[in-house]
Amino acid sequence: MSRFGYAIAFCCILLLFFAGCGRKTLPIPPQAAIPVPIADLSHTLDDQGVTLSWTYPSRAESGEKIDNIRSFKLYKSEAAAEDFCPDCPVQYDLAITLSATEVQPGSKLTYTDTALKKHYRYTYKVVSGSGWNIVSGDSNKVSFRWESPLPPPIGLTLQVADQRLILAWQPVTTLYDGSTVTEPVRYQVYRSSKGREFARIGELVDGLSSVDDGLTNGRKYFYRVRAVRTVDDTEFFGEASEVIAGMARDMIPPVPPEKFTIVATAEGVKILWENIAQQGVAGFRIYRRQAGDKEMVLVGETGRASFSFTDQDLPAGNETLYYAVTAIDAAVPPNESVFSREVELPR
User: Fold this and answer.
1) What is the pLDDT of residues 277-314, one digit of tens each?
2) Does the first or last residue of the chain, that is N or C, have fewer Cβ atoms within 10 Å of its Cβ?
3) How far, in Å, CA of 305 to CA of 243, rounded?
4) pTM of the predicted protein model
């Protein structure tokens, strides 16, 4: 064949290559499509089981951004605690496929597994797939031992104080099956501002009470407590207690007025007192009793700007009347001072 013939044949081969079954593109390197392995697989235990969480990878092994992960496959290994070998290869017994079509890169995914047995050790890993036979490498592994959960603490009480609440409870000493807890039991306190979503506050408590300070007086707070025990290297959080709620408030009352003037007028009996040089006073309450009575009776209340009160609804008779005044602050409910000294009005 002449050189001209070879040239024509070569051009035909090139034409067939590019025309073939349609337009061709350059092949994609495998590492450009394979997601990077998940590195943040973690777990949280409660009285129901385990919740696993991880992040949707946003890049491929090549470093390019990806958003085409179609599924995640979660692998689970189950082994009796006494047979568990930490240095042996893990044999996975179950693979769970989870769809990722509605998840965005960078989002957090969770999976809760309640099919756990006591005295068993569990290990998990997860891989992601972006297409047929395109699967990431293994994630990091999480491993823990599962045991019977603890029942909830009972007998919760709240002691009110200024900008703090003191929570107390009874000890948890047995498991649900009635057996005695042999490990030390600690407690985790949770708080909510609306009584729905609870978050941990503080570290695990060794005792049977916890102080939550820095609170806003007059605002309602909700609490619950879980008992926690540690077996091997795993912390087991028991069932949550009942919810208890309370409000922190100022518990220090103001001082009462001291200097008085009392006079009979055409309208009734007028009581006057001097201003109190004390911050936080919101008002005053006026009390009265007749001679022979032991208890004072509330007859009126004034605001903090008033320093007098006229008692117009006087009791019948000629018995001597005795009056006293208290100061109240702006707490909810207000703190009230002790009675001032009594002032006497003979009739």
Assistant:
1) 778 899 999 999 999 899 999 999 999 999 999 999 99
2) N
3) 41
4) 0.60
Cβ-count burial of 208 within 10 angstroms (0-12 exposed, 13-18 middle, 19+ buried)? middle
Residue 345 has φ and ψ, to the nearest 5°, of -130, 100
Report whether pLDDT(78) > 80: yes
Cα 204 from Cα 187, distance rounded (Å): 5
78 has which bridge partners? 122
For 113, which DSSP code? Answer: E
Within 8 A by CB and 6+ apart from 95, the residues are 73, 74, 75, 76
Using the Cα atoms of residue 144, residue 236, residue 117 and residue 119 in order, give the sign of their dihedral.
Answer: positive
> pLDDT: is 25 or 99 the higher one?
99
Could you give the CA distance from residue 137 to residue 129 in angstroms, rounded to a whole number?
Answer: 10
Q: Which residues, listed in sequence order, are joined to residue 146 by a DSSP beta bridge?
A: 120
CB 168 within 8 A of CB 157: yes
Pairing of strands 297-303, 308-311: unpaired
Q: Which domains does the chain have, with CATH numbers?
A: 30-146 (2.60.40.10), 157-247 (2.60.40.10), 260-345 (2.60.40.10)
Within a 13 Å sphere around the CA of 57, how many CA atoms are in the beta-carbon half?
31
Residue showing tokens 């756990």: 116
- Apex CA 6: angle with CA 4 and CA 8, to 5°? 70
203, 225 in Cβ contact below 8 A? no
The single residue listed with the structure tokens 């005695």 is 180
Distance CA(345)–CA(290), nearest Å, equals 10
Helix (H) or strand (E) segment spanning residue 95: strand 94-99
Phi/psi of residue 176, nearest 5 degrees: -60, -30
Which residues, at least 6 apart from 196, have a Cβ–Cβ distance to it below 8 Å? none
DSSP secondary structure code for residue 172 in this structure = P
